Amino acid sequence: MGDKAESEVLMDTSWRVVGSTQDRLRAWWCSCCTLKKRLPILGWLPRYSLGWLQMDLIAGMTVGLTAVPQVLAYAEVAGLPVQYGLYSAFMGCFIYCIFGTSKDVTLGPTAIMSLLCASYIDGDPVYAVLLTFLSGVIQLSMAILQLGFLLDFISFPVIKGFTCAAAITIGFGQVKNILGLQHIPQQFFLQVYYTFHNICQTRVGDLVLGGVSLVLLVLLKLMKEDLRPNEADAPICVRVSRGIVWFFGTARNALVVIAASCVAYACDVSGYEVFTVTGKTSQGLPPFSAPPFTETTWNGTVIPFDEITQDLGSGLVVIPLIGLLESIAIAKAFGSQNDYRIDANQELFAIGLTNIMGSFVSAYPVTGSFGRTAVNSQTGVCTPAGGVVTGVIVLLSLAYLMPLFYYIPKAALAAVIICAVAPMVDCSVIIKLWRVKKLDLLPFLVTFLLSFWEVQYGIVGGIAVSGFMLLYNIARPKLKVCGSAGHSSANRLMIQNPISEIVKCDARFL
Question: Which of 80, 145, 356, 382 is deepest in the core (most CB within 10 A)?
Fold first, then answer.
């Protein structure tokens, strides 16, 4: 009996040891999985190879050549000095490499975000930097609380209406730079009126340079789109020539801006002021310091934090939400295209942290860029490490090339912006909505038309109309009475759910 009891005690002890070991292993495995989820870099870095490095270097340099002229132009859209575009373009490259879940996405200034910022900051860098910090705090809080589902309430018609209106607003806003006009208001309708009113003051040099830049950008883009992939048995001269055409088409923005700057510099050296140039910019890297929470005006008046937040108003809601929406939509689109999954809440975390850290280097709010992400994907990037190369190129531009940016013609930057936003005007969406669900044209048109008055009014108006339609469908579902005529007891009331499109039966009528 004693031996049996002793053996039972030993077996119980051994099972406890085994059980505790399994619990420890399970806890360790869960902690590792959680760490990998929070730091996605741990998922791909151990498997990093020389082949991946080669592709990431090529993609990073290509995106860098695209990003530098674009972000300079987008700073103009935001109403800020051009160097703020570069200040905003590098932090996301490094942060997203560690915390992002998409290999393709590149964070930085975009046309839509720049337009939104312009309507709230009124060209004030202090307001822009503080808006970046507060937007990042809101986005990071949403990620921690897992509130990404709120973005689902912004419907497809609202997004398309806003995007089309924003593209038209941004594109027409650059016409004044193509024509060389000065002192044109920012508000869209006033902009249209005064552009045509002052058209007789057009500077011929800016018009010619802007027109030539537009033609070159369109031609280079068409050349790249018509380029066929290299065959394995193609002659070396054919492959080299296709590679040259591909490079010129991909780096077209940088090439056109460099060529225009050389022309402007030659004219300036010769003593001719033919073009409107960017002018003097701050040289060197931005200082790393906490974002300002107050502002001192030229006459010594101090604007406190609470007054600045009141001035920013609805921007503290619109900027974070649109930034998240744009970035996650891009990540999902390219994840689906390239067969990988993204974590929406982790994307919220990455973009929120990017904006918080960006505010320490004088950045204005950033989000995912569709154009640069497309270039990144098409170039064959393998991991988010390609963004590090892009960030280094932006930093080198800030450190060594800022004096050369003085000679960049505004007409050339305007051409870059117009070509970047033109594909965003999608007229086919009206036909699609008409065929699928005609009533969805209502939030689309409300968003589209109100966005020309003020962008934020368009977004809020579209969401309100879309939400009202959703609530109305829930409150007034489609009713179907099924059964034989004259046999009321056999009749059944069928209620069709407007969201899930599933037919349900009310139990009282069964």
Answer: 80
